[in-house]
C-alpha cells in the first residue's frame, strides 16, 4: 500500500486538492491519501516535508494558485525553490501544480484550468508511482497540463 | 504544553510581535510563547532556527516590515528563502508575516495592516498546531490576511 | 562497468533522451544506461538524485526544453539551481542539456538544435567519465554545444 | 569569554572592520575578537563559517561595500543568500553590514555611512550576545543603521 | 605540502587555468596543483566539490568566461550560488574568477583581462593559504582584480 500526500492552501481560490483526490480515486487503487492544508503556498515545502517524513508519503502533489502581482511571482519562485529542495532532501517526487491567476482570461476559465491541471498532475503522480514506463513512452511529446498539449516539434526531413 | 516562537525586528515600524502575542492569548491556551527580537528581517531565519532548536518551539511566527525600495524587495526575497530553508531543516512551520511598506496608502493604514495581518496569522499558527482540520475546511476559499479575502472563484456551470 | 543516467521530460517537444542514448552507444562501451522520464523539467533534480542514489549512476544527463515565456525562464532557473544542488549533495556530475524554445528560428531548427546539443553533451558525459584529459586539452577553446563553437579569443601580440 | 568574528574584504573602499572593532571595544568587555579578511564579498560566507566552526566565534559581523553596477547587486544578493545559509547551518547570528556605493552622494558621505553602519551593527552584535532584552525593548521602533532611524509609524487613533 | 585545485571550462574563450597555474608557480612553493576541466561554468561547483573531497584540495580557483546575453548572466548567477554553497559544505575557500565577455571592449582586451584576473586571484589564493595577514593589511583598500584598483574612499576631514 503506497501513500500519496496532498498539500494545498486556504489562499487558493479553487479547491484544487479536492480535484486531485477525486481524480486519483478514479485512476486506480493501491494507495491511501493524506492531506495537509496550509495558509499560503510558501508553507507548502515544509508541509510536503512533513507529509513525506512524518506521514510516510511516497509522493506528494503540491497545489496552489499564486496571484497576478509581481510580488506573487516572487513568492511562487520561493515556494518552487523550496519544493525542489524538499525533493532533494527526501529523494521523493513532489509534483508542483501551480495555477497563476493571470493564466486565465476570466474566473470561469481559472476554475476550469485549476481543476484540469490538478487532475492531469494527479495522473502523473499515479504514473510516477505505479507505471513509470507510461511517462517514458511519452518522452519528448510536448505534453501540457490544463491547456492543450504543445505536441512534438514538426520536422521537415 | 506546546511552545510558540515569535521572531520580530527593531527595523519594523510597528510592534507586530505584540499584536501576534495578544491575539494568541485571546485565541486559546495550552502553549507558552518565546520571543526573539533581531535587528533586521534578514536575521529572522537563524532567529527562528534557534527558537526551534534551542528553545524547542513547535511553530514560529516571523514578523517583519520591508521598506518600499527595490533593494528592500531583494532583501525580503533573501529572508523568505532562508525561512523556507529553515523550515525544511527543522520540519517545523514558520508563518512568514511580512508587510511591505508600499502595500498601504498611508501610515495609519500601514499600522492597521501590520496589526491585522499579525493577528490573522497568529490564529493560523494556532490552527496549524491545535486544529489543522479547520484549515482543510477552508481549502481553496481564497483567504487573505490583513486585507479582505479574495474569496473562491465564481463559476458559471 | 559504469552507469549513465538519462533524465528527460514529457514536456519537451523533441525526444532528446533518445538522441543522447544513441550518441552514447556510438561513442564507446563500458557503461549501461538507466532512463527516468518525468512530467516537467522542475522534476529533473530529484529524478537525477534518485538515479544517482537508487540506481547508482556515476554521471547523469538532464535533458529539457523550456518554453519561450518569462515564466518558463524562471522555472528553468529553479530547475538549474536544483540540478547544481543535487550535484553538490552527491559529488556527481549532471550535465544540463536545456534547449530554450526561443533559441531557434523555427521548429526544424529547434529539432536540429535539440538533437545536436543532446549528442554533443552525451560525448561530454562520456569524456568526464572515461577520458577527462580530453576536456583539459580543450580548456579555454570556446566550445559550444548545438550551435557553432565560439572559438578562442583572437589576440594581437 | 565570548568570541566575536569580524569578516571583511580588500574590495571595500573603507576599513569597516576597523570601525566595528573600535566600537566593540568601546561598548563592553567579556569577549575577544578574531578577524578574517578575504578578497571580495562573495568570499564572506565561508570566511564566517570558518570563523564559527574553526575559531569558535559565537557571533560574526560580515562587512562589505558592493559597487554600484547591476552586476554588483547580483553578487551582493549571492553573498547575502550565502550568509543566511551559513547562519542556518551553524545556528549562529551573522550581522550583514553591507554599504552599497550608490547609497551615498559622494565619497565623504560614503565613508561616513560605512563607519556609522559598522559601528551601529557592532552594538547590535554586542546586544545579541550580551543583552538581547535591549533589542526586544526596541521591537517595531523603525531603527536604521548608518542613516537616521525611520521611527515607528504615526497612528491616528 | 598544500594542494590547490584549478577548475576551468572548455566554454571559456581563453585558457585562464593556464594563467593561474603559471602565476602560482611564480609566486611560491609548498603546494601541488590538481586541475579539473569541465564543459561549462555550471559544472564548476561539483568539480570543485570533487577537487576538495576526492583530491583533498585546501583551496580552489574556479575560472570561467560567461557570455554577454541575459541567459548567460542567469547561468553565471546559478554557478556563483553553487560555488558559495560548495564552500559552506566544505569549509574551504573557492575563489571565483569570472570574466564576463561584455566587460571588455574587444577580444584583445578580453584576453588581457582574463589573463590578469586569473593571475591576481592566483596570488589571492596563495595569500589565503600561506600569508592571510597580507590580506588583512589591505582591508578596505578598494582592491580590484584585472582592471585598476578603485582605491580607498577619499575623505575630507
Describe it.
The structure is a homopentamer of 157-residue chains. The first copy, chain A, has 5 helices and 4 strands. In chain A, helix 1 (16-27) packs across helix 4. The model of chain A has no long low-confidence stretch (mean pLDDT 96). Chain A is globular, with a radius of gyration of 16 Å. Chain A has helices at residues 16-27, 44-53, 70-90, 107-130, 133-137, and strands spanning 2-9, 31-38, 59-64, 94-98. Chain A has one domain (2-137): 3-Layer(aba) Sandwich (Rossmann fold), CATH 3.40.50. Chain A starts with a strand and ends in a 20-residue tail after the last helix. Chain A is an alpha/beta fold and 157 residues long. Chain A binds chain B through residues 8-18, 35-39, 42-43, 45-47, 49-50, 53-54, 67, 71, 74-75, 78-79, 81-82, 85-86, 89, 107-108, 110-111, 114, and chain B through 73, 77, 80-81, 83-85, 87-88, 91-96, 100, 121, 124, 128, 132, 135-136, 138-145, 150-156.
Kindly summarize this structure in a few lines:
The structure is a homopentamer of 157-residue chains. Chain A has helices spanning 16-27, 44-53, 70-90, 107-130, 133-137; strands at 2-9, 31-38, 59-64, 94-98.
- Mean pLDDT of chain A equals 96
Q: How large a portion of the residues of chain A is in β-strands, by DSSP E? A: 15-25%
CATH architecture of chain A: 3-Layer(aba) Sandwich
What is the strand tally of chain A?
4
The CATH homology group name of chain A:
Lumazine/riboflavin synthase
Uncertain runs of chain A: none
Apparent shape of chain A: globular
CATH hierarchy, class of chain A = Alpha Beta
What's the number of helices of chain A? 5
Give the C-alpha Rg of chain A. 16 Å
Overall number of structural domains of chain A: 1
The CATH topology of chain A comes to Rossmann fold
| Main sheet summary of chain A | 4 strands, parallel
Give the SSE order of chain A as H and E letters: EHEHEHEHH
Q: Trace the largest sheet of chain A across and list its strands.
A: 2-1-3-4
Most extensive protein-chain contact, per-chain counts: A-B, 41 and 37 residues
Portion of residues within helices of chain A: 40-55%
Amino acid at each position: 500500500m503506497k501513500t500519496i500526500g496532498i498539500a494545498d492552501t486556504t489562499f487558493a481560490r479553487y479547491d484544487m486538492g479536492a480535484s486531485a483526490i477525486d481524480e486519483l480515486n478514479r485512476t486506480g487503487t493501491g494507495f491511501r491519501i493524506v492531506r495537509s492544508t496550509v495558509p499560503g503556498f510558501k508553507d507548502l515545502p515544509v508541509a510536503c516535508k512533513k507529509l513525506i517524513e512524518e506521514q510516510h508519503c511516497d509522493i506528494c502533489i503540491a497545489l496552489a494558485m499564486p496571484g497576478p502581482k509581481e510580488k506573487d511571482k516572487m513568492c511562487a519562485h520561493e515556494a518552487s525553490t523550496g519544493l525542489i529542495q524538499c525533493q532533494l532532501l527526501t529523494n521523493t517526487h513532489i509534483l508542483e501544480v501551480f495555477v497563476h491567476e493571470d493564466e486565465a482570461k476570466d474566473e470561469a476559465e481559472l476554475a476550469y484550468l485549476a481543476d484540469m491541471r490538478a487532475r492531469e498532475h494527479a495522473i502523473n503522480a499515479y504514473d510516477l508511482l505505479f507505471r513509470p514506463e507510461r511517462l517514458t513512452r511519452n518522452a519528448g511529446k510536448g505534453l501540457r497540463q490544463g491547456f492543450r498539449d504543445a505536441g512534438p516539434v514538426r520536422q521537415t526531413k
